[in-house]
Write a structure and sequence with these properties.
436 residues; alpha+beta; 8-stranded antiparallel beta sheet; 5-stranded antiparallel beta sheet; 14 helices; 25% strand
Length: 436
């Protein structure tokens, strides 16, 4: 186990920094448990970080920072149970590649795969799906080191009350050391990307949602233009995007050119509406078929900050129309598309889809651009619709709000009181969102 002192930790977007007393990179659950016990003796708090893809300070600490770099790898693939058990620090991209090589896949995933499995699940990372839910909802068992240094395994059968909460635990219940996911035989998805007018997408949203296994769309602010994406299972054959077309769409348009457009918009905000009208029309329709992770995920090299709210699905279109009206009547200049996705209800205590079907509305701003006015105005719309913010994305809500927004909030906080009575895993963010 290696340890380092006093260096500064930064998240991916660069909007959160922390100066821990020391950093530790345990190579096993036993070493991690020892690090937690030692921190307790010294009266220090403990937080584990992943790849820093959260925009909130959920992993920040001035105590002991646990880096998961050595807690990686596949522990076991159980073909009888159709599960895979992985170490907590394993990046999703590595898990996806190993599963594909073994002829297996997760059922659904988000659109970025840089995160560690523990970081992604602990904050409620999700993709879009009519019937298949977040990554955390695909967990069948997990192992965590609790505040007293003991190793706790939980599943539907073993410590079920911990399992109900710890799949999206925000790092508040312990440090996750391993996760078991349900998997299935690898399958093909056909993606159909198609530009569509805002008025048509919003009018037909229920139909588009019902007819597709995975539907999402992006609206380009300052325009009436959207880009839609429908992913459905396919009998094949595989027909990935051609190398040149794939590079043009995924690298040049979505990363290279978009970076230039965002930089221009940051320097000269007045150019944004005109550029948006041109760039939102530059995307043409395309259809391709490939294995799931190559369809669900995309490289994201343009750095940004983000806020996302989960609304009851029936409220999403009305809320999005309010966001559009807000942008049109304000001096705001927004260069990033607004993303809309869905998820079925699940049974995880602090899941944004806990007990209700959700639609997600995500707003982004290019890193270094003032985002406060935009995010504050959008948040006002979202909270009026009983919205639940993504735990890893910017928001201003607190424990009093969440006690109303989540029917099982008290169940989570009571479990936290039992597992971490001395708040070994606390930080300023958790004090705000969970109370003390």
């Amino acid at each position: 186990m290696s340890g380092a002192n006093g260096s500064t930790w930064r998240n991916w977007a660069g909007n959160v920094t922390a100066r821990p007393t020391r950093e530790v990179s345990p190579a096993s659950a036993a070493e991690l448990a020892e690090a937690v016990r030692r921190a307790a003796e010294q009266g220090l708090t403990v937080k584990a970080v992943g790849t820093g893809h959260s925009f909130t300070a959920t992993a920040a600490t001035d105590g002991v920072l646990i880096r998961p770099d050595l807690l990686t790898g596949i522990r076991e693939i159980d073909r009888a149970a159709m599960t895979v058990t992985v170490e907590a620090g394993t990046p999703l991209k590595r898990l996806n590649a190993v599963l594909a090589r073994e002829g297996l896949s997760l059922t659904n995933m988000g659109d970025i795969m840089e995160q560690t499995v523990a970081g992604a699940t602990s904050t409620g990372t999700h993709g879009t799906g009519r019937d298949s839910a977040s990554i955390a909802a695909q967990i069948t068992a997990l192992e965590l080191v609790t505040a007293d240094g003991s190793l706790l395994t939980c599943s539907e059968k073993e410590n079920p009350e911990v399992f109900a909460a710890a799949r999206i635990g925000l790092g508040a219940l312990g440090v996750v050391t391993a996760i078991t996911f349900a998997v299935e035989p690898v399958f093909l998805l056909t993606a159909r990307e198609e530009p569509m007018a805002f008025d048509r997408v919003t009018a037909d949203f229920d139909e588009l949602f019902t007819e597709n296994e995975h539907f999402e769309f992006y609206w380009f602010p300052h325009t009436g233009n959207c880009n839609t994406k429908r992913n459905n299972r396919s009998a094949g054959p595989a027909a990935p995007p051609g190398k040149l077309r794939g590079w043009i769409d995924d690298e040049f348009m979505s990363n290279g050119l978009f970076q230039v457009v965002c930089s221009l918009g940051r320097a000269v905000p007045a150019t944004i509406p005109a550029v948006a009208k041109v760039s939102s029309r530059a995307l043409s329709a395309r259809t391709y078929t490939d294995i799931p992770y190559k369809v669900f995920t995309s490289p994201r090299r343009v750095r940004f900050v983000e806020m996302e709210y989960a609304l009851p699905r029936e409220a999403a279109v009305g809320a999005l129309r309010e966001v559009k009206a807000l942008v049109e009547r304000s001096p705001l200049r927004v260069s990033f598309p607004v993303e809309v996705r869905t998820a079925p209800a699940d049974d995880i205590a602090l899941s944004t889809a806990s007990g209700r079907e959700a639609a997600y509305i995500a707003v982004h701003m290019y890193r270094g651009t003032p985002h406060q006015a935009y995010f504050t105005a959008v948040e006002r719309i979202m909270t009026a619709h009983a919205g639940r913010p993504h735990w890893g994305k910017l928001h201003t809500r607190d424990a009093a709000y969440f006690a109303e927004a989540y029917p099982r909030f008290a169940e989570f906080t009571a479990l936290r009181d039992r597992l971490d009575p001395d708040r070994r895993f606390a930080n300023a963010y958790l004090r705000r969102v969970l109370g003390d």
